[in-house]
Amino acid sequence: MPEWPKDPKYIGKSTPRVDGAKKVSGAAKYAHDVQPGGCLYGAVLRSRWAAAKITAIDLAPALKLRGVKAAILVRDGARQVRYYGDELAAVAATSRRVALDALRAIQIVAEPQPHVVKEHLAAKPDAPRVFAETPNTGAGRERTQGDPDKAFAESDVVVEGLYATQVEIHQPMETHGGVASFEDGELTAWHSTQGISGVRDGLAGALDLPQNKVRVLGEFMGGGFGAKFSAGVEGVLAARLSQAAGAPVRLVLTRFDESLAVGNRPSTFQKIRLGARADGTLTAFSMESYGCAGYAAGGPSAGGSTNSGFPAPYIYRVPHFRTRHTEVSIHAGPAAAFRAPGCPPASFGIESILDELAVKLGIDPVELRIKNDPMELRQRQYRLAAERFGWAAKYRRPGSSPGPVKVGVGCAGSAWRVPGGGTQAEIEVSPDGSVEIRCGTQDLGTGTHTVIAVVAAELLGLTPAEIQVRIADSRFPPSGASGGSMTVTSVTPAVYDVCTKAIEELKKASGLADVRGPQWKAACRRLGVAPLVVQGRWIDGLSAAGTGGVQMAEVEVDTETGFVRVRRVTCVQDAGLVVNRLTARSQANGGIMMGIGYALYENRVMDSTSGVMLNPNFETYKLPGIADVPEIDIEFMDLPERRVMGIGEPVTIPTASAIANAVANAIGARVTSLPITPDKVLAALGKVPGAAKDHPHDAWMSLFGARPA
Amino acid sequence: MTPAERSRGGGGAGAHAVSRRAFLRGLGTAAVTAAATGTAAAAAELEKAGGEATVGPGEVPLEFTLNGRVVRTSVEPRETLLDVLRMRFGLTGAKEGCDRGTCGACTVLLDGRPIYACMRLALEAAGSAIETIEGQSLAGELSPVQAAFVQHDALQCGFCTPGFVMTTTALLRVHPKPTEAEVRHACSGHLCRCGSQPHIVRAALAAAGVATTSPSTADSLRHDHA
Fold first, then answer.
1. How does DSSP classify residue A697?
2. How far is residue B55's CA from residue B121's CA, in Å, rounded to a whole number?
3. Which of B84, B87, B121, B153 to mutate to test the interface with A (most CBs of A within 10 A)?
4. H/E/C letters for each residue in A479-532?
């Protein structure tokens, strides 16, 4: 069995990003930045109707404009549009302004149709249908374990609650898109993507090109969070426009486009009952849930990547349960995988009701979790986090904090188990001793370049700066897409493999018994004129899945304004063998910051009357900013025997739940839906009327009707 | 500088700007004319009324200082400074994240002050000194702010980073020893979706040589060098 070095020099330490200098100096070229000679500007025309039959689109007026080089339809013939923002046509022109002029010139004949953009309205039998042939709600999927009815009847206490999570949008700083260029019948695409191989195959398929005639590049990409796995409509349009115009085309989405059409985290509506014994031991769980992934609601699934399913009762041990999940379609943009798909919504529901149970039983929320969490490691993490956070001194009876600005604390746990694999890599050792590692993986900002350099430097006895890392080129040995927190677990074993093989080869070629470190250059000189090139692949035993983590949050809530401020977050995360502590910390910070946005600010707002999204921009779709940064205390449990693990997703799962519980603890009343905005806080406090027609709780109740969960 | 300040003649541009007073003076007749005969005629009216030149819609010459060198080009009056920097000068360090002055990824310095380049017409830079991220390490050596960003990992995907670096650079020129609150305030016009803000605060203070007092940044230091 392969093993990581026992006394590492770089692994587990903090190494600044090897590509950091490029990123802070503007030298890093992102897909947005690539400008081949003669490059045209692409732009996409989108539906301004939420639902309509498109009978004709006339591109001729656009093509007549000076500077317009191509105009194409997304699809030929009459077609249906199912959301505001659906792609209809695209143009390529010599300047951005001309391209925008061209979009305005295109003539469309459309028959608008009734639409529905709110989940609870879409679930009604007489609602306008998103797909004419099927109802908006699927059949639903039921899972039962044990005998929940009997278990509820025998429970000492039963709590009930209705919880809802909003549609969250990925909003990477670099919008989707890139540059497509044809030369001699071969397509090169600089694409902002989490998966160059998948984009290569997608473009080849869409344009009917052999896969070996398509090359995808993306050394630097400005964030994805799950929304950038495929070529996408915009990637295919860029390539088609380039073909039609006979010139390279840059097609990058506007923030408006990005907000409407390229993915989001589905909304969920969870009616939960939880039964327990008087000592807090969970006995029974039932949940009736709905979820909405936009117009493209898939079949029922627990996976929750492009549909709205989510795991329940999530990480907790409940012997008897019944869950029933139903998908709802509305006329809105489609969901995509989003950082820990399904988990933040799942966490919000179960962690909220657990705190309700804790209050009812008079048990400390941390103790309640330790009692019902089957993972021994996470039980330890709760104790460790409680100590770092000062939980025992901070936890008070809900609402008992004095004064108008009330302070509260909350906690929540997470799990993640996606194993790595499937990566190939290549090392080239030159006679002068320089080293290049090539791997068809991606760096989303997670630090893949640096992780590869750290592992190679460790094994070869060199420094990370001496390792030239080449990634994100579909001509390199393939790796998987970067998702599921599995880049580090997929890539590092393959780098281990090529480095250990290279050492053996170099020993043979040089005749030296030791070629590492100080001997490296001398050994390489003996290669003569030909570099040593060695291929390798992912091997078992170096990385693993199955991390756990817990977070605790302290908030203050202004009961006069309803405004919530997060004061402190403690994160104790199992990260197995940490490869690079510095970039791992950045990921944990990022997960927590994203969790703050999910908890307090972010929300796609749809307008029922017009069917449009009301906040497709950063001034009204609110992201957390630098003023929102709380004190963040991160503890990676150093458990190298658990091998390399990915943490990008688990670190964002419990943040919003812990914050929501902290708000409830502060004010003594629970806001049951995300985001926890001031109006909801004031309504929970009874300071503003909470029973208005649009009050979320009442609206959602209509989804569930009178049926008991 | 706000557009209002600019039109009061606070900047060095002058040549192409229609002053607020001249605009208002001309509005009475020009607005009516505009409705009847279109904007070209309105522009002519304005010119008569205010005695100032209007430009466009074709390309017009533009001269400004870019990272210490005087540059000359010609631009359409409707082109933004960001587009001109990125597409004509190939300086793609400034990014477009929103195209409406909300994300800060396009931040450059105009006469030393951070501005959103997506919210300025290129012509507004006439006669001014523009600094971009590319000008911060001209000699191949990272500036103290850039070096601190790398050292403290104040970035992840890096797309927002040039904007944060430019604003931090401008802040430290004016306040060489800022407090953490001043760093947060200065950077509040920037978004970072990767959530690197905790390390950005840390890097900015480190670049200024200011000891951190916040427990979060202190914790970070303790752990990173464990």
1. H
2. 13
3. B153
4. CCCCCCCCHHHHHHHHHHHHHHHHHHHHHHHHCCCCCCHHHHHHHHHCCCCCCE
β strands within A155-236, DSSP E: 157-165, 177-183, 186-191, 214-217
How far off is chain B from A108, nearest CA to CA, in Å?
A: 27
Chain B CB within 8 Å of residue A620 CB: no
Q: What is the pLDDT of residue A663?
A: 98
Output the pTM of the full model: 0.93
Residue B27, token pair as written in the block: 């509005």
Could you tell me if A509 and A529 are in contact, meaning their C-beta atoms sit under 8 angstroms apart?
Answer: no
State the amino acid at position A639 in one-letter form. Answer: L
Other Cβ atoms closer than 10 A to A505: 17
Contacts of B192 in chain A (CB under 8 A): 173, 593, 626
Could you tell me the domains of chain A? 39-46+52-113+170-261 (3.30.365.10), 267-417+545-704 (3.30.365.10), 420-537 (3.30.365.10)
CATH architecture, domain defined by B142-224? Orthogonal Bundle (1.10)
Confidence of residue A140 (pLDDT cuts 50, 70, 90): confident
pLDDT digits (tens, 9 = 90+) for A485-498: 999 999 999 999 99
Question: Which whole number is the average pLDDT over A618-626?
Answer: 97
- Rounded to the nearest 10°, the torsion over CA B3, B4, B7, B12 is -60
* Residue pLDDT, tens place only, A586-605: 999 999 999 999 999 999 99
Residue ranges per structural domain of chain B: 3-50, 60-136, 142-224
Helix (H, G, I), strand (E, B) or coil at A143: strand
> Distance (Å, rounded) from C-alpha A489 to C-alpha A483?
11
Mean pLDDT on A354-367: 98
Kindly report the number of other CB atoms within 10 A of residue A544's CB atom. 19
Give the separation between CA A93 and CA A71, rounded to whole angstroms.
9
- For A578, the 3-state DSSP assignment is coil
Tens of pLDDT, residue by residue over A426-481, are: 999 999 999 999 999 999 999 999 999 999 999 999 999 999 999 999 999 999 99
Please give the Cα distance from A408 to A554 (Å, whole number): 6
Q: Exposed, middle or buried, B185 (CB in 10 Å: 0-12/13-18/19+)?
A: middle
- Contact assignment for A97 to B162 by CB distance below 8 Å: no
Q: Which value does ipTM take for this structure?
A: 0.96
Mutate to test the interface with B, among A626, A628, A631, A647 (most CBs of B within 10 A): A626
Of B161, B90, B98, nearest in space to A623 by CA: B98
Residues in chain B within 8 Å Cβ distance of A592: 195
pLDDT for res B5: 36
Say whether residue A591 is in contact with chain B using an 8 A CB cutoff: yes
Write out the H or E segment, with its range, that includes residue A569: strand A564-574
Q: In the CATH hierarchy, which fold is given to the domain comprising B60-136? A: Ubiquitin-like (UB roll) (3.10.20)
- For chain A, the average pLDDT equals 95
Cβ–Cβ contact A29 with B under 8 A: yes
Least confident span in A557-566, A610-619, B209-218: B209-218
In the sheet where B113-116 sits, what is the strand order?
B69-75, B60-66, B129-131, B107-110, B113-116
- Reduced 3-state DSSP string for B47-58: HHHHCCCCCCCC
Two structure tokens written together for A305 = 């990547």
- Nearest CA among A603, A609, A644 for reference residue A624: A603
| Residue B39: pLDDT over 90 | no
State pLDDT tens for residues A386-439. Answer: 999 999 999 999 999 999 999 999 999 999 999 999 999 999 999 999 999 999
Structure tokens at B173: 């020129």
